Amino acid sequence: MASSTHIPLPEQFPFDNSAYWDTSKSMFDRYCTVANVATDKVKVDCLLYAMGPRAEEIYNSFTWESENDKTVYPSVVRKFTDYFNGRTNTIYQRALFNRRMQKEGESIDDFITDLHKLAKYCNYGDTREKMIRDKLVVRVRDIRLSEKMQLQDNLNYKKALEMARSYETVLRQNRELHQEMTANATSINRVQSKGKKQSSEKSKTGGKSWKCYFCGGNKQHKRDSCPARKSECNKCSQIGHWSKVCKKGPKTGNSSLPNAKVNAVTDDSDYYFVGTVKENDESTQ
Questions:
Q1: How far apart are CA 73 and CA 42, in angstroms?
Q2: What would the pLDDT profile of 17-34 be if each residue is shown by its tens digit?
Q3: Angle at the Cα of 71 (from 66 to 74), degrees rounded to 5?
Q4: Residue 52 CB burial class (10 angstroms; 0-12, 13-18, ≥19)
Q5: Which among 118, 121, 122, 126 is positioned nearest to 101, based on CA atoms?
Q6: pLDDT at 66 exceeding the cut of 70
Q7: What sequence ranges are listed for the domain CCHC-type (predicted)?
Q8: Do the Cβ atoms of 214 and 228 come closer than 8 Å?
Q9: Following CA atoms 14, 16, 18, 23 in sequence, which dihedral angle do they give, to the nearest 10 degrees?
């Protein structure tokens, strides 16, 4: 069956990184499945085309037991595997693995996945899982988690991974709870602050509605901005307030002394004169 042309081929193989061969081969096998590439010859042709011109040169350098093996897909894959495994620098791959540490913001699962990918090309054999466990313990970012795992007896890979995942989950949940509590506390503080402000404003007016003693208005204002500041009271004739708030009675004349003479006295006088004057009498007091 012909391949489905609408499905793109995998990216070209990076020949500067021979360790990538296993991953590249797995990706191509998946492509053959979804694209319905069935026959060996078509698979070989698609593989060489997907890998690029350099793969064609390497393919032509292979020695075959029979001419038919050149078009048998498993045989071609085996040849490429031997070629790339012989070129893999194990020391370099192990250096990459040993240098790897958990990045800031990287989850435990992402860290473990990358450790597996790096360890795959280190030729650790049966010890690969133990090497990944050790790297998880000593290269995790959280020092407290690292110490907890180091204190565990008979810590295997599975238990180390479970501890790391559980620890990460608890940290995330605590962080979410803290954020929620902080948001609630902020909301409560805003309400309390508003209540205190209203209480303070109420205490300034004695707990009652505010009223000006000079004009009778209920809108707060300073004395120098009072509309009655320069007005004459119609009730007592004094300056500075209106009659509707006047506490005094109406102004009255002195009828008992119709012809009395009174010396005017001002606040600026140094001395004050106090006495009486009688009509048709020359004596004074």
A1: 9
A2: 777 788 888 889 999 999
A3: 95
A4: middle
A5: 118
A6: yes
A7: 211-228, 232-248
A8: yes
A9: -30
pLDDT, one tens digit per residue, over 242-276 is 888 888 766 555 444 444 444 443 444 344 334 44
CA angle, 125 then 131 then 134, to 5°:
165
Nearest 5°: phi and psi at 275?
A: 180, -175
Q: Which domains does the chain have, with CATH numbers?
A: 18-87 (no CATH), 90-183 (1.10.1200)
Query: Which region, left, alpha or beta, applies to residue 160 given φ > 0 means left and ψ of -120 to 50 means alpha?
Result: alpha
Contact 137, 146 (CB under 8 A): yes
**Which residues face 232 on adjacent strands?**
239
Question: What percent of the chain is modeled with pLDDT above 70?
Answer: 75
Quick one: pLDDT band at residue 199, thresholds 50, 70, 90?
low
d(CA 125, CA 94): 13
Token pair 């009509």 is at which residue?
279
Give the separation between CA 83 and CA 21, rounded to whole angstroms.
10
Q: Which of 52, 44, 76, 74 is nearest to 62 (CA)?
A: 76
Largest CA distance in the chain: 164
What is the predicted pLDDT for the residue at 222? 85
User: pTM, whole model, 2 decimals?
Assistant: 0.46
In 3D space, the residue among 115, 110, 89, 121 whose CA is nearest the CA of residue 100 turns out to be 115
Q: How far is CA 138 from CA 102, 125, 143, 241, 251, in A?
A: 10, 21, 9, 85, 99
